[in-house]
Structure formats: structure tokens, C-alpha cells
Amino acid sequence: MILEKTFLMIKPDGVRRRLVGEIIKRIEDRGLNLESMKLITLKKETAEENYVQHKGKPFFNGLIDYVTSGPVVIMVASGENAVSVMRKMMGATNPLDADPGTIRGDFALDISENIIHGSDSVESADREISLFFK
């Protein structure tokens, strides 16, 4: 059994569309534990630091504008293989490729507004958790 923590963010479109409760329910129903949660509006600098791996890519500025455009819900979830479990639950980054039953497959329509962010590795989770939950 590999117990892990992962960082999750329900993005502005998920908050705006009132999907927070449904997403939290899915996380808890799957058996993961929510250890921390906050409703915040990201500062540009924090968003840029969180998405530093995408700096210089054509979509970077649009991504930063989008994630700072309204409130987000940030969370730390823990459990067995939490990172890979959440990646599977979220579905493909492009909602058009996301399977039905995943968060993006059920709720998102566009890659630029795809409802949720989740850490892609334990190392990313550690970095993101320390950035948002100091």
C-alpha cells in the first residue's frame, strides 16, 4: 500500500458552474481523504509559479489569465496511490479525449476550461502543496 498526498484545484469554471460539491463527493466516494481545503483567488505570481513547467508555451498566458479569473478551490487529498487515482478520475486534459465517468469527461467541453487541476506526480504534489499550504 502506497499512501500519497496530491494537490487538487477546482478551476474557476468548476466553481462558477457550481460543481464543487459534486467533485468533492466523487473524491470522497472513491475513498480519498480531504486533508485541507480553501476557497481562494489566485494571484498572478502564484499561478505562474504553479504552472512554471509551461512557461514559454503558447498557451501559458491564457492559462494564467484563466486560473486567476475567479475563485478556485484548492485541496490536499490523501490515500492509497492518490496521485494516479486522481489523474484517472480527472480524465484526459482535453475533455474531448476524456472518458465518460471522469470529471472532465462528464463536465468539461474545452481544453482551455477543463474544470480541475491535479498533480501529475508525487514530486509535483509536494511542490504544489508547499506552494499553497504553507
Describe what this molecule looks like in 3D:
This protein is α+β, with helices and mostly antiparallel strands. The chain has one domain (3-91, 118-132): 2-Layer Sandwich (Alpha-Beta Plaits). 42% of the residues lie in helices and 21% in strands. It has seven helices and four strands. A four-stranded antiparallel β-sheet has the order 2-3-1-4.
Structure summarized in a few sentences:
With 134 residues, the chain is of the alpha+beta class. It has one domain: 2-Layer Sandwich (Alpha-Beta Plaits).
Task: Offer a few descriptive terms.
134 residues, alpha+beta, Alpha-Beta Plaits, four-stranded antiparallel beta sheet, 4 strands, 42% helix, globular
Mind summarizing the main beta sheet?
4 strands, antiparallel
Total domain modules: 1
CATH topology: Alpha-Beta Plaits
From the spread of the alpha carbons, the general shape counts as globular
Measured by DSSP, the beta-strand proportion falls in: 15-25%
- What's the pLDDT, averaged over the residues? 96
The second-level CATH architecture is: 2-Layer Sandwich
Proportion in helices: 40-55%
- Terminal residue distance: 27 Å
Structural class: alpha+beta
What's the level 1 CATH class? Alpha Beta
Strand arrangement across the biggest beta sheet:
2-3-1-4
Radius of gyration, Cα only, in angstroms? 14 Å
Low-confidence stretches: none
Order of helices and strands: EHHEHHEHHEH
Helix run count: 7
CATH superfamily: Nucleoside diphosphate kinase-like domain
Strand element count: 4
